[in-house]
Structure formats: C-alpha cells, structure tokens
Amino acid sequence: MRIAITRTGGFAGIERQAELDTTGRPDADHLKALAHQALSGCPSGPTRGVPDGFHYEITVDGRTAHCSDPHLTEHQRELIQSVLREGA
Amino acid sequence: MTQCHIPRMEATTNPVFCTIVPPHVLDKLARGEDPTRADRAARTIEHDALQRTRRRITTVRGAAAPTGTPSDKPQRTIYDAKNQETLPGRKVHSENDKPSKDASVNRAHAGLGATFDLYLKAYGRRSIDDHGLPLNATVHYGEKYENAFWDGSRMVFGDGDGDLFLDFTIPVDVIGHELTHGVTQHTANLEYWGQSGALNESLSDVFGSLIKQHALGHSADQADWLIGAGLLGPDVQGEALRSMKAPGTAYDDDKLGKDPQPATMDDYVKTSRDNGGVHINSGIPNHAFYLLATALGGNAWEKAGKIWYATLTGGELSTEAQFADFARLTAASARTLFGEGDETQAVLKAWSQVGVPTS
C-alpha cells in the first residue's frame, strides 16, 4: 500500500510532501489498518480549517481525503506523523 | 468534530521524492532538464492544483462570546499541551502568577500583553473583540510541531523541529499575527481565500509588525519590517519568513526554497495552493503598508496603523474584499481621519507603487 501525505498552509506557507510504501515493512499491517481508519468515517462536504492551520491531503492507493488541523482524529494524526517522519 | 471529506476516486498518486518541497521548487523541477523528475513534478503540480480548487477554508465567526466587563488590563491564561495535539492542554499560568520556569510560557504571556497594549493604547480597543475577551494561548502543541495558528478562540504554538524552525513563541510579531486573526474574525471577518485571504494574512503581518515596533519603541525607519525574525534555525539561509520592506527576499535556502512573495501586482501569483496564495500575495498589501509608513515617518502605528485599523474595523470592508476594495477604503479612511492632505496622498501613492488601483 502506498500512502502519500501533502501538508500545505501553515504560518510559513511552505509545503511538505512525503510518501511511504508499506511493502516489506514490519509495521505494514498496523499502517494499513491506520490508513483505513484515517480515511473512513470522514463526512462529505468542504474541508474547513483555521487561519494559519495546516491542511493535509492523504492519498492511499489512489483514494484521497482532506483534513485540517486542529480537527484530526487520532488515526489521522498518527498516520500523518508516521508518513511525514518516515516517508521519503 | 472531524472536518474532512473524501472526494470521488482520484487520479493515481504522484510519487514525490523530497521531504520538503515548496511549490516554487516543484515548478523549478518541472522546468528542469531531468525528464523523469520534470514529468513527476509537473504531474504533482497539476494534481495539487486540482486538489486545492476543491478546498477552501473560511474564518470562524464568533467562536467566543464576549465575557466580563471591558478592562484596561489583559486577562491572560497560558496552557501547556505537553507535546500532545489536544487542546487546550493543562492550565499552567494565570494573569497574576509569577514568571514561569518555562520560557515559552513567559514569551506567550508577554506577547499577549504586547498585543493587548498596542490595540488598547494606539486604537482604544479592549482586547480582540473590544469587549475584554480573555486571551488564551497553548504552548508546546504537538511534537516538533512546525507551526502556530489561531483556532477561532485561542492561539496555539508548536516548538518547531529545532532544525528549520525554532519555538514559534520566539518572535513577538508571530504572537501578534495570530491574535490579529482574532481581531479580523471579530470585525471584517475576511474570507481566508484568494485576495480576501491575502488581506486577512497581510493585516496579521501588519499589526504583528506594529506590535513588535510598539513594544521596542521603534519608529518606521528603525523597524526591521520582518515577520518571523529569530524563528528560523541557525543553519537556514534567511533572516525571517517574510519581509514587508522587500517581499521575496526573506529567505533563500536549500531546504526551505526561496521566499515566493511578490511586492507588486506585476508579480501577483495566481495559484490554488495555500488557499489561493494567502501567504504569498499578502506581500503586495504588506509592501503598500511599508511604503506608506516610511513615507509618513515617525511611529508606524500612529498614522499608517490608524488608517489600516479604521479600514479593518469600520464596517465597510466586505468579507470577500479584493485588494482594490481595501485600497479604496484605506484612502477613504485617510480622508476621514486626516483630510485631503499629505496622509491621503501618501496612501494613494503607496497603492499606486504596488500597482493596486484606488479609484
């Protein structure tokens, strides 16, 4: 499973992107479950954020969700941190 | 509440190979000689542009009701998120407490005070809602969190990663910037998208800088006119995040890229990123304010600041105002405050210099 995160906005207005492939990773099952949970249950409708807040675009195998600080679920937060920290 | 949505199935993902890729770096890659990189970068740009058009954020209106009697004293409370992303965090400092052992807490407390001071002393405004709203801030939000934001009712500060960005409570203008988002929310409530969003950002930069100038006692010609000085790590090539004096020159670094701000309408950036470039095109009204303040001389918060404040709070500025609407209203504010004299002429000239019409 390929998981890509694009982070935009923020006080600095500087974009950051990272992608991670779960293939062959010891935590592949955990990441896949996390990605599924991060994307599920998001209500439809436009994404709203706050001034200077980060926006995140999470793409998992071609399916994309949008979310914004500070309104993230725990699953979204953990997934975003993992991919931005360990992705390339 | 989670605020996100999943659009219909998207096109395939675009692989990206850099950890930090500012938009202008992607543009550079897309025009480069390496065909693989150029193609990937170009697809990323197209993909991002598509995504951005689906997304806009708006300001939050009236999140906190006015409480208490308007006072000449701030009522500040600082919370500590203890490196979690849970708000508000634990209350660690109240208005009359002794200084904390935590420098971030003390900086936030002082920055909130400096902001309260400028608005009260220069403009007679009692806190961000003019009704004495208590000022709340949360420090140590998240782990190595590289941002500060206004959540509709409080200011939130991350510690930075310690490499590119240091603690976001360091520059007092960043604190003033975030609180001014609160003032804007309670007044013109400019929509955080496109030109109205860039005006929202610019007003936060203008008053953020004025709060710093007022605290330091700097006149217009003594001020550094920088936003975020002291925030960048020691190895970053740059002096700040934005320059009102010379937009586009604040940083030029291998990892961060180059400051993308234009100074005039000739270089206006059309983009769907960053909510339509709210942190990019804010360079144009920022520079107009700098030109006005330095033309008038003296303390920038006095004449130039009064004109901008009257425009922001006067009730005429619409939530979807464009640069030209704002420019026209600043000229009207100048006439009301100072008549048809040097001040009004300086306002017209400043906007003319950045290419924004006032009639």
What do these coordinates show?
The complex is a heterodimer of chains A (88) and B (359). Chain A has one domain. Chain A is globular. Chain A is an alpha+beta fold. Chain A contains two helices and four strands. Chain B is of the alpha/beta class. Chain B has three domains: 23-53, no CATH class; 76-186, Elastase, domain 1 (Roll), CATH 3.10.170; 199-353, Neutral Protease Domain 2 (Neutral Protease, domain 2), CATH 1.10.390. Chain B has ten helices and ten strands. Chain B has helices at 23-30, 35-53, 103-123, 172-186, 194-216, 273-277, 283-296, 303-313, 323-338, 342-353; strands spanning 4-5, 76-80, 90-93, 135-139, 148-150, 155-157, 226-227, 242-243, 252-253, 257-258. In chain B, the strands form three sheets. Chain B has a five-stranded mixed sheet, covered by helices on one side. In chain B, helix 4 crosses helix 5, helix 7 packs across helix 8 (303-313) and helix 9 packs antiparallel against helix 10. Chain B is globular, with a radius of gyration of 20 Å. The model of chain B is unreliable at 1-34 and 43-66 (pLDDT under 50).
Tell me the number of strands of chain A. Answer: 4
Approximate helicity band of chain A = 25-40%
Shape summary of chain B: globular
Q: State the secondary-structure class of chain B.
A: alpha/beta
What is the strand arrangement across the widest sheet of chain A?
2-1-3-4
InterPro entries (chain A): Emfourin
Pfam family, one (chain A): Emfourin
Organism (chain A): Streptomyces varsoviensis
GO molecular function, one term (chain A): metallopeptidase activity
What's this, in brief?
Chain A: It comes from Streptomyces varsoviensis. The complex is a heterodimer of chains A (88) and B (359). Chain A has 88 residues and is of the alpha+beta class.
Can you lay out the helices and strands and say which pair or pack?
The complex is a heterodimer of chains A (88) and B (359).
Chain A lengths: L1 E8 L6 E6 L6 H12 L14 E7 L2 E6 L5 H13 L2
Antiparallel strand pairs in A: 1-2, 1-3, 3-4
Chain B lengths: L3 E2 L17 H8 L4 H19 L22 E5 L9 E4 L9 H21 L11 E5 L8 E3 L4 E3 L14 H15 L7 H23 L9 E2 L14 E2 L8 E2 L3 E2 L14 H5 L5 H14 L6 H11 L9 H16 L3 H12 L6
Parallel strand pairs in B: 2-4, 4-6
Antiparallel strand pairs in B: 2-3, 5-6, 7-8, 9-10
